[in-house]
TrEMBL record:
Gene Ontology biological process terms from the UniProt entry: DNA recombination; DNA repair; DNA replication; SOS response
All residue ranges annotated as the Helicase ATP-binding domain in the record: 24-194
Domain called Helicase C-terminal: residue spans: 215-361
Entry annotated with the keyword Transferase: no
Protein name: DNA helicase RecQ
Species of the source: Mucilaginibacter gotjawali
Reactions the enzyme catalyzes: Couples ATP hydrolysis with the unwinding of duplex DNA by translocating in the 3'-5' direction
Cofactor: Zn(2+); Mg(2+)
A GO molecular-function annotation: four-way junction helicase activity
Keywords annotated in UniProt: ATP-binding, DNA damage, DNA recombination, DNA repair, DNA-binding, Helicase, Hydrolase, Isomerase, Metal-binding, Nucleotide-binding, Zinc
Amino acid sequence: MEPVQALQKYFGYSAFRHEQGAIINHVLNKKDVLALMPTGGGKSLCYQLPAVMLEGLTIVISPLIALMKDQVDSLNVNGIPAAFFNSSQNPEEQVQLTTKLRNNQIKLLYLAPERLFGNESKMMGFLKTLPVSLIAIDEAHCISHWGHDFRPEYLALAGLKLEFPNIPVIALTATADKLTKKDILEKLNLKDPAVFISSFNRENITYRVVPKRKSFNQLLAFLDERKEESGIIYCLSRKSTESLAADLTAEGFAAAAYHAGLDNALKAKTQEAFLRDDVKIIVATIAFGMGINKSNVRYVVHMDMPKNIEGYYQETGRAGRDGLPSEAMLLYSPGDAIKLKQFAMIADNPEQSQVMLNKLNDMVRYCQLQACRRQFLLKYFEEDSPPNCGSCDYCLTEFKKFDGTLIAQKALSAVARLKERFGYTYVIDFLRGSKNEKIREEHKALKTYGIGADISKTDWLRYIRELTGMGYLYVSDDAYPVLKLTPKSDAVLKGLEKVMLIESQTVEEHQHAEATL
Ligand code: ADP
Ligand code: ZN
């Protein structure tokens, strides 16, 4: 049977999405694969379809029990025999499952990594007696220190290729920057792997970042036009999910809270109710969403700033899986960043803390961005896109612009004179000729010192961010953010390129309008 026929027969779909077809062909040809696909892109099918087509058993490594259960249930509903080993099973159930596996009655076996290599576990020995044809590693970024969700248990997966040298491995993730990608390939010891990267662009999602003022009123204004629609509202703390859900209920919304501290029965009930549309709004911590497959989520709101772009993108990606227009709104307050900084510091691990802090800084940059949000997000995932997407708050606003070439030249030459070694505050103080003691004597002697005294600090900050957004400057990821020139800077400095900047007045009007919604 051809893969497309099997797709139709077992899953009822008529065509492959993204790179699914190519990925599946590689897997069927027993090649190792790394597949990067956005949330909702259809990763599961990339190993589930080969699993039903190949003889023997597919082992799926997955980090979360809840996620496994959903997947196993939905496979069984489709008539595909799948199962998982779980610590809540009693010995009898485990024996039953073992027998089924021996009799070749299971096509997919889901396992948490710690089960596979656990000290007392005889699992590996047992699995090696079975006709394993494929190993799938879901959420593969968990193996990397550079990822946002490092899980030490995943490191043991390095041993898989030794135990099963001839079995193809497919690793899948929705989030991988360059370092994480490299790390996954190395740590898993993949053999001559084919790497598939699908576009991360979610065209039907509109991205907005709004300055957080009176957040509950802002939320009510947003919901006012979306009363009949389903949405997810993310909060940072468990407590605030509960109080916000209560407040929304009092306003007449069908809202429920969800977080990891609730008991399992209640969590399952809430999820069910959301899937059935009895509950329209889930107010949740990031514990909600993994494995949730509701296609008509129309909006995702972040009441607090997320810790990193990866998480944010994954969470917003839960909107609009059906392809219809959907909204992602984030309420941003600089105070959130300060709070999150404390979380990012992991006491005994300075290296890991630095990774988290850098990711947090990227998140702050996104919130403060004066440029197309989609382009920023896609660039984060190393994808090129046009500078104007037409569907983020920045691209949807008509800003009045003026010829800011001279301002740009001043900013860029200040950065150049300061030898690309300072951050925003210093560069701006220098431009404004601040009498501040911080500005070193040697710098006060430079020609550009004080050439921007006519422009306020706030405006300078905005212009520099805008120049950064346009790619004339960039902010390095050193211990603290440092402004640097880019290959595009030169043409501006030489007067070969005109730079249009946004009139500050229109920015204020825009922010005011968004904040009062
Ligand atoms: P991911 O794991 O990448 O977040 P899933 O594997 O959960 O995404 O797939 C997202 C949704 O898309 C699921 O409802 C799945 O059934 C559906 N889907 C996957 N592949 C196809 C396809 N080729 N055609 C139609 N729907 C698909
Ligand atoms: Zn845009």
